[in-house]
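Session log. Operator J.P. requested a structure for one protein chain; no other inputs attached. Running the standard single-chain path with token output.
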Amino acid sequence: MVVRRHIEVSGIVQGVGFRPYVYKLANSLKLSGTIRNTSAGVTIEVQGPSAAVQDFVDHLPTDAPALARITDYSIHETPCNGDHDFRIVHSDGQEQMRTLISPDVATCPDCRREMFDPRDRRYLYPFINCTNCGPRFTIVRDIPYDRPSTSMAVFPMCPVCREEYENPLDRRFHAQPNACWECGPQVELWDKAGQKIDCDNPILAAASALRNGLIVAVKGLGGFHLAVDATNPQAVSLLRERKRRVEKPFAVMVPDLEAAESICRLGTAERDVLESIQRPIVLLRKRPDSLIADQVAPFNHNLGVFLPYTPLHHLLLRAGGFRALVMTSGNLSEEPIAIDNREAIRRLHGLGDLFLVHNREILLRCDDSVVRVSNGVTRQLRRSRGFVPVPVFLKNEQPSVLAVGGELKNTVCLTKGKHAFLSQHIGDLENVESYSFFGEAIRHLERILEIEPSVIAHDLHPGYFSTQWARQRGGAHVVGVQHHHAHIASCMAENHLEGRVIGIALDGTGYGTDGHIWGGEVLLAGYEGFDRAAHLEYLPLPGVEAAIHQPWRMAVSYLLHHFGREFLKLNIPFVRALDRNKTELLIRMIEQNVNSPLTSSCGRLFDAVAALVGIRQTVNYEAQAAIELEMAIDDAPDTSGYPMDLIPYGDNWIIGARPMFAGVVEDLQRHVPVSLISRRFHNGLAKAFVELAELLRKKTGLARVCLSGGTFHNVYLSGNLETQLRLAGFEVYAQREVPAGDGGLSLGQAMVAAAQSQHLTAEIAENAEQIL
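Structure written below.
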């Protein structure tokens, strides 16, 4: 029996080889019909024997190309017609305007094999790509996604490339960046003044410079890297000095898994994510005997490792025979990554000795993504290249909302239907360059997604640049969203939750509704609102920013709060080492409430403990003290934890740290190893939040717990807390698709603003009806 089926497919199915895949599948089953692009994805009509059509339907989603992401598809019967073959039908430009653009992904195995094949016409070509790999997001100027709307528009294809591009059976069918030595982009080596250096092989010359200890700025997919030989201590130290990056770890790029295994410990999950098409930086445990210079990640047990993801990277690593290259963002600390050749010469002046550039324009900055595997689950720490602009798929349709994120680790988010589009990592909005990039990212997303938001969401903090931008933008309803409410809403949205949950939001800083600095919060939350059920006790933050950079100040604040001035008599190394003049000045600042706002920050609690046990008195990058406190935990089993007080406060609870600090002090006096003290601190903190969740379940009946906030990048704490909550009978939801830290904040802001605006609209409609 001959049948015909009409199939609508939505998702990332354009520009990723989906139509050639369907064409080949239909022909292999001897089916007739058509496929064409639509505004939502693609429409397929397929006709033939019912068994063959069913085979087609069964294989369609399961064998799709690696870059395709099917979010929905529907199948309907339709009358047969006189089709005798299967055709790819041309689609007009308007139909393509609203489809999803795929992210930049790593060079595929087929292209790598061709690139190193002396018989191939693209042998050693540094821009080889096909429909299954290469740049997408960072070369898109406008929509629809076709060559004239990309930075490849200035490179007309040669006849051979054009033939590949137009052949539906070819791997390069409609691959917009398709090119070769004859017609595509080229590489040059420049000196620090931006003058071209004459050489037969710029990549080989750059590799030679790297072997000789020089710093080379290398143009990649989403911007420049600053590269040095990761096994050369002097070169790495020079890079640190020039980049003004004192101790924050550098990421290293290695040629293959074997090289990664030689420097770090890998499990199955780590191997899989290293080799994934996104090629993120993966945080891995260092081997003590690796060849990597100590200066790459000082005072750190972990290394950020990634594999090459562009042809140029593969060629550079092979040309120099490198086991590892430091590949860090091409910028000064806290500035956005450089993307333009001349911009790089200007902004990286004094950083790079040489510049390996090319003439394919990068249209949008996009830093490398960073992930960490926790209990076999890959979790995002920085969501950027390889993942953006793939949307977060939502449970329900949403109004068009623009959420502008926070001040640090900024991302923005646009919602459209059942999709939430988070931008690439923008960074800290504390300088002109980052603020400019912030506006650039918003305009680009609005343009390629064709979204004009009706609502703009921002953080409650009035001093944030993103908040000020939102209030000045105009043309839309503006909604302020509390920082930790946004964190919990982000976790709920990613996990498709509705209703209310117990939300545990732990981080360093967030503006509270009472004007204080929050950061250790337990909320009863839904999208429309929240109640603050519990929080860490308020402590003075003496000197504000100074206290964040000098954890010893928070240790003094906690000790003074719990033991009074008598803490100065404690016989522990921390107290003995204090500068008495500075300490007396700090105590008076706290007692007289001078520049010492109150905070319930969990991040500052970690800082205080890290300083108290002697790990870190000052920090050189964000969360350094907390990171090193976690790393101090050894593998010795110990489930004991320091107690914490749960103090009733009206209908809520205050989490008091006095017994915990008393336990830490006692262990220091008994010369207990710091590794054990750190473990007991983490265990005690987890136990306190489990007890709180149990109290709230008894009070409210809620049994779902969402965990969010930057503190949950701590693998030991998050894993311990998730395990203990599940053992206590809770459903536990954490984040993996977007960062738990402020990089995921904009998603939660969007969801809260959407819910509140819909609620307001409903109220207005109800009031109008009552009046009528």
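Operator note: The two ends are 60 Å apart (CA to CA).
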